Amino acid sequence: MQNLFESLNKLTILDQEVKIKLENLVKVEQFEKDDFVLKEGSAIRKLYFVENGLLRSFFHKDGKEVVKWFCYEGQFATSMYSFISQKPSYENIQAIEKSTLFSITFQDLQNLYETYPAFERIGRLLTEQYYVMLEERIILLQFQTAKERYENFLRDEKCLINRIPLGYLASYLGITQETLSRIRAKK
């Protein structure tokens, strides 16, 4: 739980009372490789923090899986649309590796927001980070070449390059696996 507190303390300092409350609410969940954290059509009722492991989010389009994001140690994961609206998700979240996640329910998080101003600040800052990440992703897909997208991934997420199957990476970059292989061969 130390990693979770370190990540939260980067957003705002939590006093001991808040930490104790959080320790009582957070649950530890284990997922094996290929286990689903969420399947499309189901509403997600939890926000997750990746203690260790690797997740991917994807949806289906024209019979193919389209990877939306990867999430690894020290990051928060959920289907934002489903979590906030409490409606069924359009996406799947799946473990790429055996993963240990900390989870908190939507209702428990809402109660923390109401009770502790520090948590309301954390919620706002996490939402802002998510929005910036989403905007960057849109720009990446609309305005960068396949090569630029791959180079940016190497620069920003180099720690993942040997952890993600090439098919997943190609999908995330919005290119075919063959195009990815050609780009990698030229490096």
Order of helices and strands: HHEEEEEEHEEHHHHH
The number of distinct β-strands equals 8
Proportion of beta-strand residues: 15-25%
Gap from first CA to last CA: 40 Å
Helical content (DSSP H or I, runs of 4+): 40-55%
Comma- or semicolon-separated keywords:
four-stranded antiparallel beta sheet, about 190 residues, alpha+beta, globular
Describe the structure concisely.
With 187 residues, this protein is of the alpha+beta class. The protein has eight helices and eight strands; from the N terminus they run H-H-E-E-E-E-E-E-H-E-E-H-H-H-H-H.
Topology:
Layout: H1 2-9, H2 16-25, E1 27-31, E2 36-38, E3 46-52, E4 54-61, E5 64-72, E6 76-77, H3 80-85, E7 92-95, E8 99-105, H4 106-115, H5 117-143, H6 146-157, H7 166-173, H8 177-185
Antiparallel strand pairs: 1-8, 2-7, 3-6, 3-8, 4-5, 4-7
Helix pairs in contact: 4-5, 7-8
